[in-house]
Design goal:
The complex is a heterodimer. Chain A is mainly alpha-helical. Chain A contains 6 helices and no strands. In chain B, a hairpin with a 4-residue loop joins strand 1 (85-86) and strand 2 (91-92). The termini of chain B are far apart. Classes of the chains: A mainly alpha, B mainly alpha.
């Protein structure tokens, strides 16, 4: 049994009203699928973990208090040991003459 | 590009130039996404005049490449690597293995059968 087109169109209209979609009986390409898409930006921008408060920040915020930084202390101890052994960084050269002292010797 | 990069670094993971670049691209894309979608809508809408649609096409293609989602690439948050990154853990395969064996990733354990 054939149903009249106008009846079908009425049904579609009601359907669109109930489910909150656009009524488009001619099936024109109105680009509505773009408008229906969700924005992906916020999830994509969350990918990398953000900076959290570090010990350096704490020190800067409360300069009066002493904050124990284990890693930094370890590093300083290591550097101190190297210096004691005489393996520290070389002294900064003050004059141009001093810095050129070994310049000629490297050629072979 | 430098004009988009944040003045102060806000990343807490492994950082190298490529990670910073990717992060910048993500933020730029987030900022320009509505505009891009609006242009895309105009382009796809066949009921609008042809001239408007062509103009929108031109405008979309002339936007900066950092606003393009295809520029974004998932990178390892532990080592900055760009290949073999497991999306669920955001880590490359080797970092995933190291962290899984150490027990840093909840619910992951080594299997053998």
């Amino acid at each position: 049994m054939a149903v009249a087109r106008s009846r079908v169109l009425d049904l579609m209209k009601v359907q669109c009203r109930i489910f909150n979609t656009t009524f488009n009986p001619d099936r024109l390409r109105t680009g509505n699928k773009i408008l229906r898409q969700r924005l992906r930006g916020p999830t994509l921008a969350q990918y990398y973990p953000r900076r959290v408060v570090t010990i350096g920040d704490l020190r800067k915020a409360y300069p009066d208090y002493e904050v124990w930084d284990e890693k930094e202390e370890e590093r300083l101890e290591h550097v101190g040991m190297l210096k004691a052994k005489g393996k520290g960084p070389p002294k900064k050269k003050k004059t141009a003459e001093e810095s050129k002292k070994f310049a000629g010797k490297k050629k072979r | 590009m430098a004009q988009f990069r944040a003045k102060k670094l806000d990343l807490g993971c492994f950082v190298n130039a490529r990670v910073i670049r990717d992060h910048t691209k993500r933020k730029v894309f987030e900022q320009f996404e509505p505009q891009r979608q609006a242009l895309r809508y105009i382009i796809r809408n066949t009921t609008l005049p042809q001239r408007t649609r062509a103009q929108a096409q031109l405008q979309l293609s002339q936007m900066h490449c950092y606003t393009n989602p295809t520029q974004i690439k998932n990178r390892c948050i532990m080592g900055g690597k760009g290949r073999w990154v497991i999306r669920d853990f955001r880590m490359a395969r080797y970092q995933f293995r190291l962290n899984a064996l150490e027990g840093n990733i909840p619910g992951v354990k080594k299997a053998s059968w």
